[in-house]
Amino acid sequence: MSTVRTVCTVLSAFCGLTGCQYTVVPDAPKATEIASAVKVAAIPVKPVEPALPSGYSWDVPESMQGVKIRNQGKGIQKKIVALTFDDGPSANITPQVLETLSANNVKATFFLMGLHMKTRPELVKEIVSKGHAIGGHTYTHLRNPDEYVAEEEIKRWDSLFRDITRRTTRLFRPPFGNLRSAYSKAALKAGYPLILWTNTGADTTRHINAEKVYTAVMEQLHPGDIVLLHDSQDKQHTATALPHIIKTLKEKGYTFVTVPEMLKEWDAFQGQGRSKVSESPLKSTTHTKPEKIEKTEAVKEKEGAVAR
Ligand SMILES: [Zn+2]
Fold first, then answer.
1. What is the Cα–Cα distance from 39 to 42, expressed in whole angstroms?
2. Which helix (H) or strand (E) holds 226?
3. pLDDT tens digits, residue range 177-203?
Protein backbone atom coordinates (compact mmCIF):
# COMPACT_ATOMS: atom_id res chain seq x y z
CA MET A 1 0.00 0.00 0.00
CA SER A 2 1.33 3.46 -0.90
CA THR A 3 2.06 6.08 1.73
CA VAL A 4 -0.86 8.17 0.41
CA ARG A 5 -3.20 5.20 0.72
CA THR A 6 -1.85 4.48 4.20
CA VAL A 7 -2.38 8.06 5.26
CA CYS A 8 -5.79 8.04 3.62
CA THR A 9 -6.71 4.97 5.60
CA VAL A 10 -5.85 6.77 8.80
CA LEU A 11 -7.47 10.01 7.65
CA SER A 12 -10.44 8.35 5.96
CA ALA A 13 -12.91 10.42 7.91
CA PHE A 14 -11.34 13.66 6.66
CA CYS A 15 -10.01 12.92 3.18
CA GLY A 16 -10.99 15.12 0.23
CA LEU A 17 -8.45 14.09 -2.43
CA THR A 18 -9.67 13.71 -6.02
CA GLY A 19 -10.47 10.07 -6.81
CA CYS A 20 -10.19 8.98 -3.22
CA GLN A 21 -12.46 6.07 -2.32
CA TYR A 22 -13.23 7.41 1.11
CA THR A 23 -16.18 9.61 2.01
CA VAL A 24 -15.68 13.39 1.81
CA VAL A 25 -16.65 15.20 4.96
CA PRO A 26 -17.28 18.96 4.72
CA ASP A 27 -15.61 19.95 8.00
CA ALA A 28 -11.79 20.32 7.66
CA PRO A 29 -9.67 18.53 10.29
CA LYS A 30 -7.50 20.44 12.76
CA ALA A 31 -3.76 20.69 11.94
CA THR A 32 -2.81 18.81 15.12
CA GLU A 33 -5.06 15.88 14.17
CA ILE A 34 -3.41 15.55 10.73
CA ALA A 35 0.12 15.80 12.15
CA SER A 36 -0.65 13.12 14.69
CA ALA A 37 -2.15 10.75 12.12
CA VAL A 38 0.70 11.19 9.59
CA LYS A 39 3.29 10.58 12.29
CA VAL A 40 1.71 7.24 13.21
CA ALA A 41 1.42 6.13 9.58
CA ALA A 42 4.81 7.16 8.15
CA ILE A 43 7.62 6.28 10.59
CA PRO A 44 9.08 2.75 10.13
CA VAL A 45 10.60 0.79 13.01
CA LYS A 46 14.41 0.89 12.84
CA PRO A 47 16.24 -2.30 13.90
CA VAL A 48 18.45 -1.98 16.95
CA GLU A 49 22.12 -2.76 16.36
CA PRO A 50 24.03 -4.79 18.94
CA ALA A 51 26.71 -2.59 20.53
CA LEU A 52 30.38 -3.35 19.89
CA PRO A 53 32.98 -2.29 22.45
CA SER A 54 34.88 0.81 21.33
CA GLY A 55 38.09 0.24 19.41
CA TYR A 56 36.89 -3.18 18.33
CA SER A 57 37.46 -4.16 14.71
CA TRP A 58 37.26 -7.28 12.55
CA ASP A 59 39.58 -5.88 9.89
CA VAL A 60 42.07 -8.30 8.36
CA PRO A 61 45.58 -6.99 7.53
CA GLU A 62 46.06 -6.28 3.84
CA SER A 63 48.76 -8.96 3.49
CA MET A 64 46.26 -11.61 4.67
CA GLN A 65 43.23 -10.71 2.61
CA GLY A 66 42.25 -13.34 0.04
CA VAL A 67 45.02 -15.82 1.00
CA LYS A 68 45.32 -19.05 2.96
CA ILE A 69 46.08 -18.44 6.62
CA ARG A 70 47.69 -21.27 8.49
CA ASN A 71 51.18 -20.76 9.86
CA GLN A 72 52.24 -17.23 9.02
CA GLY A 73 52.78 -16.60 12.75
CA LYS A 74 55.14 -19.54 13.25
CA GLY A 75 58.03 -18.55 15.52
CA ILE A 76 56.22 -15.69 17.24
CA GLN A 77 57.32 -15.34 20.88
CA LYS A 78 54.49 -13.29 22.35
CA LYS A 79 52.32 -15.43 24.64
CA ILE A 80 48.97 -14.89 22.95
CA VAL A 81 46.37 -17.42 21.86
CA ALA A 82 43.15 -17.23 19.84
CA LEU A 83 40.40 -19.71 20.72
CA THR A 84 38.01 -20.48 17.85
CA PHE A 85 34.70 -22.34 17.85
CA ASP A 86 33.21 -23.81 14.67
CA ASP A 87 29.79 -25.07 13.53
CA GLY A 88 27.56 -23.16 16.00
CA PRO A 89 25.58 -21.57 17.32
CA SER A 90 23.96 -24.49 19.13
CA ALA A 91 21.20 -24.19 21.70
CA ASN A 92 23.01 -26.16 24.40
CA ILE A 93 26.80 -25.75 23.95
CA THR A 94 27.18 -22.17 22.67
CA PRO A 95 25.56 -20.63 25.80
CA GLN A 96 27.91 -22.68 28.01
CA VAL A 97 30.92 -21.55 26.01
CA LEU A 98 29.79 -17.91 26.14
CA GLU A 99 29.30 -18.12 29.89
CA THR A 100 32.78 -19.60 30.45
CA LEU A 101 34.37 -16.95 28.22
CA SER A 102 32.55 -14.14 30.03
CA ALA A 103 33.41 -15.52 33.48
CA ASN A 104 37.09 -15.49 32.50
CA ASN A 105 36.98 -12.22 30.54
CA VAL A 106 38.19 -14.02 27.42
CA LYS A 107 37.39 -12.95 23.85
CA ALA A 108 37.20 -15.64 21.15
CA THR A 109 36.15 -16.14 17.52
CA PHE A 110 33.15 -18.08 16.26
CA PHE A 111 32.92 -19.50 12.72
CA LEU A 112 29.18 -19.92 12.38
CA MET A 113 26.98 -21.96 10.05
CA GLY A 114 24.17 -20.06 8.34
CA LEU A 115 21.67 -22.83 9.02
CA HIS A 116 22.19 -22.43 12.77
CA MET A 117 22.32 -18.62 12.65
CA LYS A 118 18.88 -18.68 11.01
CA THR A 119 17.49 -20.80 13.86
CA ARG A 120 19.23 -18.94 16.69
CA PRO A 121 19.75 -15.30 15.71
CA GLU A 122 19.63 -14.21 19.36
CA LEU A 123 22.85 -16.15 20.02
CA VAL A 124 24.54 -14.50 17.04
CA LYS A 125 23.65 -11.10 18.49
CA GLU A 126 24.89 -12.15 21.92
CA ILE A 127 28.24 -13.26 20.49
CA VAL A 128 28.66 -9.87 18.80
CA SER A 129 27.51 -7.85 21.81
CA LYS A 130 30.00 -9.63 24.08
CA GLY A 131 32.92 -8.54 21.91
CA HIS A 132 33.76 -11.84 20.22
CA ALA A 133 34.57 -11.99 16.51
CA ILE A 134 32.50 -13.90 13.95
CA GLY A 135 33.52 -15.49 10.68
CA GLY A 136 31.69 -17.38 7.96
CA HIS A 137 31.66 -21.18 7.90
CA THR A 138 29.19 -21.59 4.99
CA TYR A 139 25.44 -22.06 5.16
CA THR A 140 25.04 -25.86 5.22
CA HIS A 141 28.65 -27.16 5.61
CA LEU A 142 28.56 -29.58 2.68
CA ARG A 143 31.50 -31.90 2.12
CA ASN A 144 31.61 -31.51 -1.64
CA PRO A 145 29.49 -28.67 -3.04
CA ASP A 146 29.69 -27.69 -6.69
CA GLU A 147 30.83 -24.22 -7.72
CA TYR A 148 27.32 -22.76 -8.06
CA VAL A 149 26.14 -24.04 -4.69
CA ALA A 150 29.32 -22.83 -2.99
CA GLU A 151 29.00 -19.29 -4.32
CA GLU A 152 25.31 -19.13 -3.51
CA GLU A 153 25.90 -20.37 0.04
CA ILE A 154 28.55 -17.76 0.72
CA LYS A 155 26.26 -14.99 -0.56
CA ARG A 156 23.37 -16.40 1.47
CA TRP A 157 25.49 -16.51 4.63
CA ASP A 158 26.63 -12.91 4.10
CA SER A 159 23.06 -11.73 3.58
CA LEU A 160 21.74 -13.52 6.66
CA PHE A 161 24.59 -12.27 8.83
CA ARG A 162 23.91 -8.71 7.69
CA ASP A 163 20.20 -9.11 8.40
CA ILE A 164 20.84 -10.35 11.93
CA THR A 165 23.72 -8.09 13.00
CA ARG A 166 23.56 -5.10 10.60
CA ARG A 167 27.27 -5.58 9.94
CA THR A 168 29.68 -7.63 7.83
CA THR A 169 32.75 -9.77 8.45
CA ARG A 170 35.82 -10.53 6.36
CA LEU A 171 36.67 -13.76 8.20
CA PHE A 172 36.04 -17.21 6.72
CA ARG A 173 36.99 -20.76 7.60
CA PRO A 174 36.34 -23.57 5.05
CA PRO A 175 34.48 -26.68 6.32
CA PHE A 176 36.78 -29.62 7.10
CA GLY A 177 39.74 -27.26 6.60
CA ASN A 178 39.52 -28.18 2.93
CA LEU A 179 41.45 -25.54 1.00
CA ARG A 180 40.59 -27.12 -2.36
CA SER A 181 36.82 -27.22 -2.01
CA ALA A 182 34.48 -25.11 -4.11
CA TYR A 183 33.69 -23.22 -0.87
CA SER A 184 37.35 -22.22 -0.55
CA LYS A 185 37.58 -21.17 -4.18
CA ALA A 186 34.41 -19.10 -3.88
CA ALA A 187 35.59 -17.48 -0.64
CA LEU A 188 38.98 -16.57 -2.10
CA LYS A 189 37.21 -15.16 -5.15
CA ALA A 190 35.14 -12.99 -2.82
CA GLY A 191 38.35 -11.75 -1.13
CA TYR A 192 38.07 -13.70 2.11
CA PRO A 193 41.14 -15.20 3.76
CA LEU A 194 40.89 -18.95 4.40
CA ILE A 195 41.59 -19.11 8.13
CA LEU A 196 42.79 -22.48 9.40
CA TRP A 197 44.43 -23.24 12.75
CA THR A 198 47.76 -24.13 14.33
CA ASN A 199 46.43 -26.15 17.26
CA THR A 200 43.39 -28.42 17.58
CA GLY A 201 41.50 -29.89 20.51
CA ALA A 202 40.63 -32.79 18.17
CA ASP A 203 37.13 -32.58 19.63
CA THR A 204 35.47 -34.14 16.57
CA THR A 205 37.41 -37.41 16.84
CA ARG A 206 35.90 -40.68 18.09
CA HIS A 207 36.06 -41.64 21.75
CA ILE A 208 36.96 -38.09 22.71
CA ASN A 209 36.40 -36.70 26.19
CA ALA A 210 37.12 -33.46 28.02
CA GLU A 211 40.49 -34.62 29.31
CA LYS A 212 41.64 -35.58 25.82
CA VAL A 213 40.57 -32.20 24.43
CA TYR A 214 42.51 -30.43 27.19
CA THR A 215 45.59 -32.61 26.66
CA ALA A 216 45.52 -32.18 22.87
CA VAL A 217 45.56 -28.38 23.16
CA MET A 218 48.30 -28.35 25.78
CA GLU A 219 50.56 -30.78 23.93
CA GLN A 220 50.57 -28.62 20.79
CA LEU A 221 50.70 -25.27 22.54
CA HIS A 222 52.89 -22.53 21.05
CA PRO A 223 52.76 -18.74 21.38
CA GLY A 224 50.57 -17.25 18.64
CA ASP A 225 48.36 -20.33 18.31
CA ILE A 226 44.93 -20.31 16.69
CA VAL A 227 43.11 -23.16 18.46
CA LEU A 228 40.37 -25.15 16.72
CA LEU A 229 37.41 -26.15 18.90
CA HIS A 230 33.70 -26.69 18.20
CA ASP A 231 30.51 -25.48 19.87
CA SER A 232 28.08 -27.69 17.97
CA GLN A 233 25.41 -29.57 19.90
CA ASP A 234 27.33 -32.79 20.63
CA LYS A 235 30.45 -31.08 21.99
CA GLN A 236 29.78 -31.22 25.72
CA HIS A 237 33.35 -32.49 26.16
CA THR A 238 34.63 -29.22 24.67
CA ALA A 239 32.41 -27.09 26.92
CA THR A 240 33.63 -29.11 29.92
CA ALA A 241 37.29 -28.82 28.96
CA LEU A 242 37.16 -25.09 28.20
CA PRO A 243 37.45 -23.69 31.77
CA HIS A 244 40.47 -25.94 32.39
CA ILE A 245 42.13 -24.91 29.12
CA ILE A 246 41.66 -21.23 29.94
CA LYS A 247 42.88 -21.65 33.51
CA THR A 248 46.10 -23.40 32.48
CA LEU A 249 46.78 -20.96 29.65
CA LYS A 250 46.42 -18.06 32.07
CA GLU A 251 48.76 -19.77 34.55
CA LYS A 252 51.31 -20.13 31.75
CA GLY A 253 51.11 -16.40 31.13
CA TYR A 254 49.00 -16.38 27.98
CA THR A 255 46.52 -13.68 27.05
CA PHE A 256 43.58 -14.23 24.73
CA VAL A 257 42.89 -12.42 21.46
CA THR A 258 40.37 -12.74 18.66
CA VAL A 259 41.43 -14.00 15.23
CA PRO A 260 41.50 -10.49 13.69
CA GLU A 261 43.75 -9.38 16.57
CA MET A 262 45.95 -12.44 16.12
CA LEU A 263 46.30 -11.80 12.38
CA LYS A 264 47.47 -8.27 13.14
CA GLU A 265 50.10 -9.73 15.51
CA TRP A 266 51.18 -12.25 12.86
CA ASP A 267 51.35 -9.46 10.30
CA ALA A 268 53.58 -7.36 12.59
CA PHE A 269 55.72 -10.42 13.32
CA GLN A 270 56.17 -11.04 9.61
CA GLY A 271 57.47 -7.49 9.25
CA GLN A 272 60.00 -8.06 12.05
CA GLY A 273 60.86 -11.56 10.82
CA ARG A 274 61.98 -10.37 7.44
CA SER A 275 64.76 -8.31 8.99
CA LYS A 276 65.54 -9.93 12.38
CA VAL A 277 64.77 -13.66 12.43
CA SER A 278 67.15 -15.63 10.22
CA GLU A 279 65.25 -18.92 10.49
CA SER A 280 61.91 -17.33 9.74
CA PRO A 281 59.73 -19.66 7.65
CA LEU A 282 58.43 -16.67 5.78
CA LYS A 283 59.63 -15.59 2.39
CA SER A 284 61.03 -12.12 1.92
CA THR A 285 58.11 -10.84 -0.08
CA THR A 286 55.77 -8.03 0.83
CA HIS A 287 52.71 -10.27 0.92
CA THR A 288 52.36 -13.81 2.19
CA LYS A 289 51.68 -16.18 -0.65
CA PRO A 290 49.11 -18.96 -0.36
CA GLU A 291 50.38 -22.20 1.17
CA LYS A 292 50.75 -25.21 -1.10
CA ILE A 293 47.83 -27.62 -1.00
CA GLU A 294 50.07 -30.70 -0.57
CA LYS A 295 51.13 -29.54 2.88
CA THR A 296 47.54 -29.16 3.99
CA GLU A 297 46.73 -32.69 2.93
CA ALA A 298 49.71 -33.95 4.89
CA VAL A 299 48.56 -32.12 7.98
CA LYS A 300 45.06 -33.52 7.56
CA GLU A 301 46.43 -37.04 7.34
CA LYS A 302 48.47 -36.48 10.47
CA GLU A 303 45.39 -35.28 12.31
CA GLY A 304 43.41 -38.32 11.26
CA ALA A 305 41.39 -36.60 8.55
CA VAL A 306 38.55 -36.05 11.01
CA ALA A 307 35.59 -33.82 10.28
CA ARG A 308 36.09 -30.19 11.22
ZN1 LIG B 1 32.98 -27.07 10.48
1. 6
2. strand 225-230
3. 999 999 999 999 999 999 999 999 999
Its pTM stands at 0.74
Amino acid at 221: L
User: Is 207 known to be catalytic?
Assistant: no
Q: What is the mean pLDDT of residues 260-289?
A: 62
Asked whether residue 140 falls in the same domain as residue 283, the answer is: yes
Q: Which of 158, 230, 231, 237 is catalytic?
A: 230
Distances, alpha carbon 102 to alpha carbons 89, 147, 246, in Å: 16, 39, 12
Could you list the residue range(s) of the whole structural domain that residue 38 is in? Answer: 3-42
Angstrom distances, CA of residue 18 to CA of 8, 15, 23, 24: 12, 9, 11, 10
86 is catalytic: yes
Domain containing residue 142: CATH number = 3.20.20.370
Closest alpha carbon to 249 in 105, 81, 136: 81
Give the pLDDT confidence of 149-176 residue by residue, as tens digits: 999 999 999 999 999 999 899 999 999 9
For residue 123, report the distance from its CA to the centre of ligand 1, in Å: 18
Half-sphere exposure at residue 40, Cβ-oriented, CA atoms within 13 angstroms: 12
Same domain, residue pair 128 and 15: no
